[in-house]
Amino acid sequence: MCGIIGYTGGKQASPILIKGLERLEYRGYDSSGIAVLDGTNIGIIKTRGKVEALKKKTDGGNKPHGTVGIGHTRWATHGVPSDVNSHPHLSQDGRFAVVHNGIIENYAEIKSDLESKGVVFASDTDSEVIAQLAAYLYNGNMTDTVRAVCERLVGSYAVGIISTEAPDTVYAMRKDNPLVIGLGKNENFIASDIAAALEHTHEFVQLGDGEFARLTSHTATFFDRDGNRIEKTPYSIDWDISRAEKAGYPHFMLKEIYEQPRAITDTVRPRIKGNEIVLDKIVLDAHNVNSIDKIDIIGCGSAYHAGIVGKSFIEKYCRIRVNCVLASEYIYSDPITDNRTLTIIISQSGETADTLAALKLAKKSGSHTVAVVNVLESAIAREADDVLYTHAGPEIAVATTKGYTTQVAALYLIGLKMARIKHNISEDRYKSLLRKITELPEKVQHILDDTSKIKTFAEKYSSHKCVFFIGRGTDYAASLEGALKLKEISYIHAEAYAAGELKHGTISLIEKGTITIAIVTQSALQQKMLSNIKAVQSRYGSVLAIATPKTSDVGEFCDGMFVMPECDDDLSPVLTAVALQLFAYYVAADRGCDIDKPRNLAKSVTVE
Ligand code: F6R
User: Fold this and answer.
1) Are 126 and 103 in contact (CB under 8 A)?
2) CA distance 377 to 206
3) Catalytic site residues?
4) Ligand 1: distance of its center to the CA of 514 in Å?
5) Which residue, 122, 243, 533, 600, shows the most beta carbons closer than 10 Å to its own?
6) How much of the chain is in helix, strand and coil states, percent to nearest 5?
7) Measured CA distances, 202 to 14, 121, 160, 215, 288 (Å)
């Protein structure tokens, strides 16, 4: 969703802000803008549309002049996308400029209060109240003013403020919305995610909820919600900026698909010591594991789909009941959760608002919470009792790929470790699964080495209006993710069904020209799948199969088949995901879609 970058230092701010905004484009936005302080005045340039348009308006980032500034990409919530509703917002006296992510819930009340005192608003946004309020509350002390502004705001926010009253300073504050402080040499940054500042520094500090920061080129000072100074410990990011660049690929999504062998290796390898699985600092010993009588896995979108794969694996090998729940449903469901429930929270970004709310609720109910998260020090990583990082590296394309497969790999490790503790798996099976998990990257690589067949299928069927995905067991879980990938980036209507459910309604939609992708990797369910495939074909529908060498007999009854490398039935969702990501990618590419930034979607969904 919206993105923030801020700079104070010795260089011209505008080019740094524009570059930072380009790096935030992937979050999804509809307008952008920058505000720069030249020591006396604040210059603002903003526009509806892409950062490219902003770049033109600023002469390629050459104006406004000044070495202190803030920039923003906006994803409209209050007020249509327009030049005037774009950020930064300026107070009516021109002294304060503000960029804001999140939603100010009491903005209407603050607005009418200020209007009654003669303040005239320029935009329809909730965010403008922050700039007007700062100007109204200013008492000669900027730090005090920022604290007083925080005190009045209800809702979620990450905010950057500059003011002519403190011409060398950027202020930042946050609550329930991501914001990091980048510490450079004689320069400092604020950013809604590290990608925006990573080419300037690898040292970051996370602002906690309710905290705020005062940055000059040489100092970074932090305060708690009451205005007391606090110390914060920086952490280092070892991601290289090249990881956040396309490196010759036409799209980030394709690059990230190709990064999966490395990402899965980095997630799995460091946790396997001989025959032991060591999950960082997470204590999963006999006492803890045996006291659990239920596991809740919670996430949104693809993270939820990873949870469904995890559910069947964990239930099969641990014999513990697992509920996989959508975060947005969990928070309003009055969940039956207590200290005998282990809650596994899954999130690539670590910032998804629904997932964060679910995590807080699970903790409040007494459950022990483990977060499977990609982004270091993100809100979910910090809030959970324990965290297991997936080491996917920065994921820029809106549609997750390596984020998803590394989540599945992490869940395999958690499940396998608990299964061994509970003595529900033979030592032979444990060792064989462990070995096969470490072999997943090379099998993924095998698929990536020759994508021509998937590309040919994709181009053949890219003009179709509707695609069904069917599978049974863990193949059904893989279908859900395949359908989501296709619909979000190609805008083709796609639905996943448990294959056995077709006859209970959906089959009435099958007709000539309908495409069904049948995932058949479970040897035990192959015959059942075959019956489902035949039922589709009897209604003149076309069927493409995704199979393994063991199940490839189904190809005889299909209109086309992609055979993946041999794989353990329990681990096939990782390979299937890669094949279906490629299918979705090539369909979308053939249709000329904006693959990395699909319409209406945002990478990090920080509002409920
Ligand atoms: C789909 C996709 C989304 C995310 C979902 C959760 O390709 O990327 O469905 O999986 O928004 O995001 P995180 O994992 O960041 O919590």
Assistant:
1) yes
2) 7
3) 2, 603
4) 28
5) 533
6) 40, 25, 35
7) 21, 39, 20, 17, 37
Give pTM, 2 decimals. Answer: 0.82
> Which of 159, 210, 219 is CA-nearest to residue 183?
219
Residue 95 class from Cβ within 10 Å (0-12 exposed, 13-18 middle, 19+ buried)? middle
Distance CA 139, CA 135 (A): 9
Neighbours of 56 (CB within 10 A): 12
Return the closest-CA partner of residue 157 out of 87, 81, 205.
87
Predicted confidence at residue 317, as pLDDT, reads 97
Q: How far apart are CA 592 and CA 327, in angstroms?
A: 33
**pLDDT attached to residue 209:** 87
Tell me which residue has tokens 């209109």.
559
* Substitution site in 256, 376, 388, 400 for ligand 1 pocket (most atoms within 8 Å of beta carbon): 400
Cβ partners under 8 Å of residue 115, min gap 6: 121
Q: What pLDDT score does 83 carry? A: 87
Is the minimum distance from the CB of 406 to ligand 1 under 6 angstroms?
no
The residue contributing the CA closest to ligand 1 atom 5 is 301
Residue located via tokens 């500042």: 197
Phi, psi of 96 (to 5 degrees): -125, 130
Give the contacts of 505 (CB within 8 A, at least 6 positions apart). Answer: none
Ligand 1 center from residue 257 Cα (angstroms): 15
Give the Å distances, CA to CA, from 66 to 13, 43, 169: 6, 9, 12
Residue 532 has a pLDDT of 95
E strand or H helix at 467, and its extent? strand 466-471
User: How far, in Å, is the centroid of ligand 1 from the Cα of 373?
Assistant: 11
> DSSP character for 556?
G
> Residue 230: which residues within 8 A CB-CB, separation 6 or more?
211, 222, 223, 224
Those residues of the chain that have pLDDT short of 50 are none
Residue 224 has what pLDDT?
94
Compute CA distances 325 → 106, 298, 400, whole Å: 31, 5, 19
| Phi-psi region at 59: left, alpha or beta (left = phi > 0; alpha = psi -120 to 50) | left
Exposure class string for 149-165: b at 16+ Cβ within 10 A, else e: bbebbebbbbbbbbbbe
Q: Cα separation of 374 and 188, whole Å?
A: 25
267: nearest Cα among 259, 581, 359: 259
CB within 8 Å of 515: residues ≥ 6 apart: 461, 464, 466, 467, 468, 541, 542, 543, 544
Position 570, amino acid: D
